[in-house]
Structures are given as structure tokens and as C-alpha cells.
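Good morning C.,

I know you're traveling, so I'll keep this short. The sequence:
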Amino acid sequence: MGAFPLTRLLDRSSAVFLILLAAFAVVIPTLNLLVPASSGLHVSTYLVALFGKYICYAMLALSIDLIWGYAGILSLGHGAFFALGGYAMGMYLMRQIGTRGVYANPILPDFMVFLNWQELPVYWYGFTHFAYAALMIVLAPGLLAFVFGWFAFRSRVTGVYLSIIMQAMTFALMLGFFRNNFGFGGNNGLTDFKDIFGFNVQAETTRNALLIVSCLALAICFLICRAVVTSKFGKVLVAIRDAETRTRFLGYRVEAYKLFVFTLSACMAGVAGALYVPQVGIINPSEFAPGNSIEAVIWVAVGGRGTLTGAVLGAFVVNYAKTFFTTGWLAPYWLFVLGGLFIAVTLLLPRGIVGTCEWWCARRAEKQAPTPIAAEAPHAAE
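The C-alpha cells, ready to paste straight into the viewer:
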């Protein structure tokens, strides 16, 4: 009996995904730290940081797939939750700089000294301690999602209207964080981080450790999502996605289900943003840009909505393509490529990469299954 929940939680594709993720977390740091730079197998520190960024994007895509693929909530503002988690981590890293900043102020970050701030704002106090920062990484996006969802879902705002409102919320946050008097660095954001837990954020070992932690966080988020979607709760979410009105008439509190999964998804996005910041080295208001949230939705659509593993694959595929197209003479054409990719997937692969593969395998299995022999008709009575 004890093995059944684990078997239900980890099907074949999920087990393969976790094995590949574990191998990725071991092989990449090994090739970076133990293989000489002169070897063709060596992985540069730049690629380690780049792969770490992809892992964080995969977590963001996973959080979107949880609500869009299984509950039918199309969020075009998840970049806000990602950015809030990133700012919480950035504030912690800024408080660790101390007297090593440009102005050598032991209390105020450099941008506050430059702007002639006389004292540290109250909401910065607790970020000296990582435990408080970790709480804010989850609490800030989770609380915003809870408050927003409470009003939106109780008012039965759905579909494109919900997406537009979320876009407006994200844009408003971006404009607010651009202001210097908000105390978050204005348009420059937070940067020039020195260390994390006493380790230099630029060191090879630190970057590899961050990659491993990001892989572990992605695995945990994936298991949480699998636990949700394979449970009775997940079946209700699918029912809400396919027939919300009918599900409500059956007696389910649709608003409570949507509010819970929406808040959980926002917390996951916040964790992704927090791990993203020390690997990239900066967090600024551009992370709130509505285009970032739309791009994250495209990752899910390309990989396969409602498949979990497809969201991760889509994040890797699209961001690798973005890296490839934006590092050369093709950079001005990236947005055209991204739009064309989304249109092509919508028309030719509406289930996404993983969803199409699963559908094809299911059809092939049906064709190969033996046809049951029809029972002979009884002889008519003479």
C-alpha cells in the first residue's frame, strides 16, 4: 500500500525527467571543475551560469503550467511574482555587502547613499538575515497572489479579462519599482553583489553550487506539482479547467481551489526568481515587463501545456534559441522568430512538443493493441 502513492506520483516520464535532472546537476559541475579548460569536454563557468538561468526559467514555466495547463488560469503576469522573489534575494545580497560598497557605508546600500537617503527603510531591516529573506521570497509573491486571486476569483473574473488585469498589475509594479523613492534602486535595480553565505558569487565553486541548488529546487517543485495534479485535488482542477460552471454546480468551491493553486504557483515563481538573481548578478524593474510574462507562457505552449515536463523542455528550447539568435547578427530578428515559433506551434503542434509525442505514442499503442474477437452470435432457435 505504501508504494502506490509513489508509483502514482512518479510515472515513467517523471522518473526519466528526475534522473536526467540529477545527471545534469552532477555532470555539468564535474566538467567545469575537474576537466581542464584545454579539453573539449570542459564546460565554461559562463555556461554553468547560463544553464543555472535556464533552470530558474524552467521553474517559472512549471509554475505557469500548473495553473494554465491544469486549472485553465492563463496568467500573463507571472513575471511579477518571479521579480518579487528576485528582489527579496537581491535585498539580502545587498545587505551582505557592508563596507565593501563604493561608499563604504556599513548600513545603507550604495544607491541610497547616492540618493542622499539618511536612514535605511523599515522594510529593509530584516534582510540582514537569510531566514527572513527566505520567508519574504515566498511570502511576498504568495501574499500578492492571494490578495489578487481573492478578489478576482470571487468576482468570477476569468479568461482574457483575468489576463488583461494581471498584465495591468505587472505593468503598475514595473512603473512603481522604476521610481527611486520606492527604495529598490530605481531603474538600475540591485546589483554589485559580493557574496552569498560568505562565498564569492563570482567564484566557480559558488556558481556550480547555485546550479546544483537550482536543480534540487526544480526537482522539488516538480514533485509538488505532480503531487497536486495526480491527487483528487488535481482532478477537480482539471474539471474546473474543462467545465467550471458544471463543477461549481456539483458543489465544489471553485474559487477556493483556484485561489490555492494560484498562490502555490506564485510562491514557486518567487523561488525561481530568488535563485535567478545571484546567478545573473542583477535584478531591476525590467523583470516586471509584461513581455517577460508573455514569453514565459510561450515556453509552456511550445513544450506542451498540461504535461509539466513539457514546460521544462519548452523553457530550455526557447531560451537556448534566444541565446543563439541574440548573440550574433540575427539579434534584431529574435522577436520575429519567437512570434513565428508561437504561431507554428499553435497551428501545427497545438499540444506542444511533449503533448504531441504523448498523443502519438498513445495512438500507436492503440493501433498495436490486439483487437478483441467478437463473440459468435447464438444460433437462432429452430
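Safe travels,
E.
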